[in-house]
Design a protein that fits this description.
- The protein has helices at residues 18-24, 49-64, 66-73, and strands at 5-8, 11-14, 33-36, 42-45.
- It is α+β, with helices and mostly antiparallel strands and 74 residues long.
- 0% of the residues are buried.
Length: 74
């Protein structure tokens, strides 16, 4: 899908077609995250890859301290 960079007021932006918004589950005001794809381009995604990495770390900590967390929850 080809997107065109356009002047929008004093800014520059991309206009996303309705079908792309629907496919990504996005609505006006939602955020997209751009991450390098390693081939000179970028990947646009509606989720935050840093948040995903943080959640993996939290899962590891919760697994390691499962018994301690159970006791603290009492």
């Amino acid at each position: 899908m080809k997107l065109e960079v356009k002047k929008i007021g004093n800014s520059t932006g991309l206009i996303l077609p309705k079908d792309l918004l629907a496919k990504l589950g996005l609505k006006p005001g939602d955020a997209l995250h751009a991450t390098p794809d390693g081939e000179g381009g970028v990947r646009l995604t509606p989720y935050d890859p840093d948040f995903e990495q943080s959640m993996r770390l939290v899962d590891e900590i919760m697994d390691e301290y499962r018994d301690t967390l159970k006791e603290l929850a009492k």
